[in-house]
Amino acid sequence: MLILIPILFCSLAVQSASIESQSIDLRIINGLPVEVAGRPFQVAVYTGCSPTCRLCGGTVIASNKILTAANCVYGKTARPMLVYAGSVYRSYGGEIRHVKNISVHPNFDPVTFDYDVAVLTINQGLLLGGKISSIPLWSMSHFNNRLPTIVSGWGSRSSASTVLEDRLRSGEVRAFNSTTCIQDFGITSLTSTQLCAGIEWGNKDACFGDEGGPLTNKAGTTLLGIVSKPTEGCGLAGKPHIYTWVFPVRDWILSQ
């Protein structure tokens, strides 16, 4: 399960509106700053404060569709949610969109995080090109074991920190097949909609603040996974992170 950490509030000024976000989310450990051209599909999702305030990551998959983790929006309503796109900074320099509809996968399990995927429909389409673009979903039923991948988000640089990063950061991790996840790392609870990714010796990982964000191939041209939950802490040796693998839920995503 996800680790709860002390409350930290951050604000986003949108003309006369503002949002506060409690940092109970996932973050990139030992990641590097990203230029917007490198992750133009990455967005910040402010989910409102009912029952708790939260900041998550998200991915542009169409001009009016944002892909994120179901655990970010489960049990919440669309009205207070905002999507912030087109900037490497989570609080300025980009475009704001309101969320008008939330589609959580009907098989989402908040205990096991199986089918941890949701699609947000925003009130006004984003102008794609330049600082904002969509990314295609992984379309093959397999991937090479230890595939080099990139994960990104605004989380803290340490699992012991409660400070969200203001600038987007990314880190390279390896995506492992189910056999490696189960036999080498002992993740016996892995489901058919999940994959694990990380570094065998730890050091780089998603952590609190990055949930819902993208895991892509190294070139950043295809979306392989969605940040879901840690197996045990963040950035620990032999404890890769759990992601939702997009291929098994691809048809559902595209139907929303």
Care to give the gist of this entry?
The chain has about 260 residues and is mainly β. Helix content is about 5%, strand content about 35%.
Structure description:
This protein is mainly β and 256 residues long. It folds into two domains: 39-122, Thrombin, subunit H (Beta Barrel), CATH 2.40.10.10; 135-247, Beta Barrel (Thrombin, subunit H), CATH 2.40.10. 7% of the residues lie in helices and 34% in strands. The chain has helices at 70-73, 178-184, 250-255; strands at 9-14, 17-22, 32-33, 42-46, 55-62, 65-68, 82-85, 95-104, 118-122, 147-153, 169-176, 194-198, 214-217, 223-230, 241-245. Strands 10-11-12-15-14-13 form a six-stranded antiparallel β-barrel. A hairpin with a 2-residue loop joins strand 1 (9-14) and strand 2 (17-22). It comes from Culicoides sonorensis (Biting midge). GO terms for molecular function: serine-type endopeptidase activity. Residues 1-16 form the signal peptide. Belongs to the peptidase S1 family. CLIP subfamily. Keywords: Disulfide bond, Hydrolase, Protease, Serine protease, Signal.
